[in-house]
Give the backbone structure.
Amino acid sequence: MVCGQSVDGANTLFGDYSSSQGENVLASFGTNSYPGEQDPTLDLAWSAGGSLLLMGAGAGLTKGMMYLDDVASGFGVFGRGVDSSPGQFRFFEVPNNAVELPVTLHQQKELSLLTAQTRNDLANDFDLLINELTPNQIDAIAEHPWTMRLFFGSAVESRVAGQIDNLVLDNPSHVLSDLTWTRRTNAPQDFYTLDGYGFDITGNSPASIFKHQSRPEIDSLVTYDSIPNDLGYRFINWLENN
Amino acid sequence: MTLISLDSELRPSGNAFVLSGKSFESETIEKLVFRPVGDQKYIIEDVAFIDCNVDSNVAVIRKGVTLKNVIFDNLVCKKPFEISAEAVLDNVVIKGNENPAMVWIRNQHEDRSEEIEFPDATLDVSEYVGELSITGIPVDSVVRNSDLHIVIKSSWLDEIDWKDLGFSPLSYWKLMAKKVSAAKCAEGIFSLPPKSGKNYERSMSELELLKDNGFV
């Protein structure tokens, strides 16, 4: 399913190990930053200096046209679904905005926040990071610290998935309640909704973005700031000295 | 190939969804996911999965699930079989040779520091060969193969003089003790390091050191 594919993308690093994506997303909800004249979510796409790119069928259109185009093509789900049994639709709530937005945009915002926070948490708190690594992965990193680059992405994905489960456990109507984690490394997308809308989270290197944006199954690509090259070595230093 | 959907096998019963008295043999299961939301409870009782293949390689069991008298025998799943330490495991058996590829049990909520009680619970992994990581449940509740599955204590980080005893600064066993500590647990159970690793022989020698010094 390809409709209104977008990339929530690379921000400038504001410090050694912090990502500003979460703040950008949060700001998009604020009335000070967005006085209400425009659709805040679509403004998000344009406000981050090109960090949130709109692509696909709607690329090149104005914001309003993009929105209408997405609506016309069945972009996401408006309002509420219904649920009673496992694997079926659940009620989900969306913030009370002046403009009714596609649920998938709310989901993208939530996923962006979770991803940015998770990336920063794991890069800064090695207790959290080691919790997300398997014994064999830890053994491999101890042998070859550069392999952290191979495992960090799956650690982010796994932790985000776990946090979504906990959010939904506490609040069955959470906006992310209908996301399913594919888990597979070679799956075309990391999460998909009941309607088949695909999300993927990945590092923000140009090569990674290019690789993912070419997959038709990915409708929204959420990126996080790539980890520093020396993160594996810092992790090893922490293991040795703590 | 017919895909089995476990969601469609669940039957409502009060506030719970129940799957009981079933044996799945040589079936292909779409996904093995039991993920209750809100106050939902899932009860999986008297169920066997024998030589089943998880098509999506997604096998996740979360808090709110009770597994009672359940056996997973040669469950083909190329990704970790993740089980929340906050699920109730009562006479659960996982066996197989790297099927699933990994068994991973840990706390679902990281602020949960106390291991919950399982008065009569047992988890039997004694016939499971593969990568194993268990924290968040009492090690005494796990039936294991002591040659393959090693109990690691977080207290070792302080109790063992790793350098004087001749351990490598990055000893696998020290790293696993660190993992237990990071999980805010006292003990955990881990598989041996992978034989393909460069440090395998060293790790096995260090395991003997642990045994010689009475830690294992």
About this structure: Chain B touches chain A through 49 residues (CB under 8 Å). The mean pLDDT of chain B is 92.
